[in-house]
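USER:
Before I trust my own judgement here, I would like a peer's view. Write it directly below this note and I will take it from there.

ASSISTANT:
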Amino acid sequence: MRGRMVIAVGNGVAAGALWGGVFLAPQVLAGFSALQLSAARYLVYGLAAALLLLPRWRALTLGRDEWLALLGLGLLGNIVYYILLANAVRWAGGAATSLIIGMLPVVVTLVGARDHGAVQVRKLVWPLCLCVLGVGLVGIEAMRAETGLASSGLRAAGLLCAFGALASWAVYSVVNSRWLARRPDISGHDWSLLTGVVTGGLALLLVAPAFGGPQQGHQASDWLWFWSVTTAVAICASILGNGLWNRVSRLLPLTLVGQMIIFETVFALLYGFLWAQRLPTVLEASAIACLLAGVLWCTMAHRDTRVSG
């Protein structure tokens, strides 16, 4: 039983490592808009998912409810979440956004605590407090360097977008876990690919606003680099990362699934340090230590919880 939990947590770490790389793409492709990055990533995700599913397409039995669920998951977990997040960072700043989005593990864990047989909230209070402390330290450090924020009106709109992104991904995570439990006959990887097919269809709606206007200042080599990076993000983060995440969602109780989201934040920080070619500050190192300690503590609280196969 504990061996299965170790495997599940390992999948969570791997998913976080792949997702963390997504935060480097806007820096690597600074000359392209968030809408272009989103459209390209999800178009490639949809195409790759369709090709991978093609040999098994007829074996998959999906009804109207499943397709509607996949449509909602594609919107909430991909399109809507990314657009809200991008606007939140632009209008409210990265520090405030990270503080709000960083509450995802806490929100998902508290929702999962309502499930039958879940670990009692009182056993998770201190691990969750450690996670909140870690997110707070990240925000404090980011606010020190944050300048040039928008007007108060736009900042308020950005904060609303950040809370919207928080709600969007929290609902996605919970609903996705529920559907994986409801359809055990569909593997987590195939469910991720099905979500990708639907998301790719939705991304077609972004093509005109993202690429329809004049594209100034981009040479052929720039576009080659753009599609190379977005394809790598789509394959690594969306295909592989989402597949690993669905396995985590199926193996672990929702109270522990929520904690696995923290690894995305941790790896995003680590990749950011590598990109900036610097070591973390004392506050940043303390934040990472708090986040990891909170996850470890929460995992220990679940050590006697049944892990599904």
User: Anything to note?
Assistant: The radius of gyration is 19 Å. Residues 2-207+220-301 form one domain. The chain has one domain: 2-207+220-301. Residues 220-251 form the longest helix (32 residues).
